[in-house]
Amino acid sequence: MIDKLAAIIDLGPKGGFQGFGNLGLENRNAYDAPAIFASAMSTTIGVISVVAIIWFLVQLLTGAVAIIGSGGDKAKNEQARAKITSGLTGLIVVIAGVFITDLVGTIFGFPILDIANSILNLKIK
Question: pTM of this prediction?
Answer without folding.
Answer: 0.60
